[in-house]
Write the structure tokens for this entry.
Amino acid sequence: MNRLEGLVQTTTLNNGVEMPRLGLGVWKTNNTSAKESVKESIIKGYHLIDTAKQYGNEAGVGEGIKEGLAATGKNRKDLFITTKVFNGDQGYQSTLDALNGTLKRLDLTYIDLYLMHWPVDGKYLDTWKAMEKLYHQGKVRAIGVSNFDNDRLQDLLNHCEIVPAVNQMEFNPINQEKDIMAFNSHAGIQLEAWSPLGGGEALNNPTIKQIADKYNKSVAQVILRWDWQKGVVTIPKSSHEERIIQNSDIFDFELSDQDIQAIDALDQAKRSLWYPDFEWHTTGQMTDTVDQWDDSPKNYKD
């Protein structure tokens, strides 16, 4: 299977929606870079694009979508766009209202997957009720969560009408979230990886480097292939054309069971962002902060 054939491969979410299994993430990317990387990724055959209001680059992503579609002759329905409910917008009515601003910045009429960015304590149940309403209204094709541990996810399942379609988590060889992965699988929730390459510690790991040399692939390609074979949807970030291509060149080889087990054994449960490290959900300043870039639109309020 070549890279273009691989990029159209999908997983079926629990509501029947088909979601591409490999896409592009744009965290910590300003609007100009986001526009260029999104445009380039569409030209290079990507279908899944992942952003968030908190990233401060929805406007750039929207421009990249428009330019990418124009350059390829593809249609909106050929893409799968994910964005997220901003922490500062959580709550019932505020979540309903916030989608309008997101759609305006992205210049879209609907979102394919709308995620709750973090489980803001005291608000996430009301936020989910609003997301269910948006789903029923047809403004979003699927709804899910991000950064939900098993306790909070179980609480949500105890109160929800619609089971989340996706839980997007930090997932990489150093932090494999095995308990969360098992819980999600049992509940019929697709696991999606943010920070799939795990930073320098994973990219410089000698075990993965040895495996990469065996297949004549890069360490990043081996990690993304490991994600693929474990059934995890993956959204590696890149703003460089060469890397965008390389990250999707993972379909012409297959890791052996022994190689999969060797990478599985690297798990340190080492999270870069997680409870109790983040205190925004109670008293911290992250509650209502959107990343602002020098090239941000002057008015980013909804």
